[in-house]
Amino acid sequence: MLPRLKGLFHLDLVRSTKAVQHLTTFVVAGISTILITRLYLALSGYPQIGGDTGLHVAHVLPGGLLMLFAMWLQLSYIGPGPRPVAALFGGIGFGLFLDEVGKFVTSDNDYFFAPSAAIMYVVFAGFVVGAHFWRRRVPLSDAERVANAAHVLVDGLAGRLSENRRAEVLHSLDEVGDVEGAAEVRRLLERIETRAPAVPQRLEGWWQRVADGFARVSRSRFALPVMGVLLFTQVAWALLVLAWLTLSDAPHGVSVGGVLLGTAGSVVFTTTGLWQGRRRGRRAAVESFQRSVLTSLLLTQVFLFAASQFAATAGLLGDLVLLGLVNADLARSRRVRG
């Protein structure tokens, strides 16, 4: 009975090699939209669309329309082409939607509900960390890589594939084993004519350059000390914000204890990583650094956002940069080990 149920609910989904880029686009677009929206509303005195007519068009409505547009792109076009644009507009729409979370969870529709920033942060941080563990838990199989190459081939057969994208896919096929269909996909890719990259491919190219930058930094012999310094800088920043909260009249409540607990955990993991780098090697050190970053993301920054709203945005950006560095280093070590 159990195998039958497992087969019934099995979705047979093939993962994308560009999932991390698209999810990153979605998260960055969403967070940027929230910050820009709140800044604009504060500077403009919180105007209402609709004026004195008695109508108020909440920005959750254009957010929903943008998410609908992202779904329309995905459902109406084939191939990987629409995904970067769908991730961008879907992230903007979700940011506009999530910005009004205070109205959804309070009986008086309070846009300025104090814990709203923490709720937004937890949603995005959980999304990032969940996507990270999802990809790391089970790496893409060779068959999935060939399937992704065939997906890119759709653009090529329609005359919409750039030379850089083709070269990237051919390189990925070089890394797979003797998988059924790989040779056929390669022959078709080598025969098709390419064209100048379109807007979606340029979006992918920007993120690829960011990933390449992380990879270059992680290969440096100074990478481990730099990561350690940045991690301790994050701790110092969190303590400075905490000190400002304590000395000011801003309400902070349980946030002090949460920030102290998170920073203590980050210090322990960072110190352990520097020590393990000398005794057990680079990978053990970077894995400990990763625990330090995740502790900051999922504990320290949550309490900072709950207490100081968007004053902790710099800490979030710093953690995302550090997560990119440690993930690039771990990915490189897995390739070398494999």
UniProtKB/TrEMBL annotation:
Keyword Transmembrane: yes
Keyword Membrane: yes
Residue intervals passing through the bilayer: 20-41, 53-73, 85-105, 111-134, 222-247, 253-275, 296-317
Keywords: Membrane, Transmembrane, Transmembrane helix
Name this protein carries in UniProt: Uncharacterized protein
Species annotation: Kineococcus rhizosphaerae
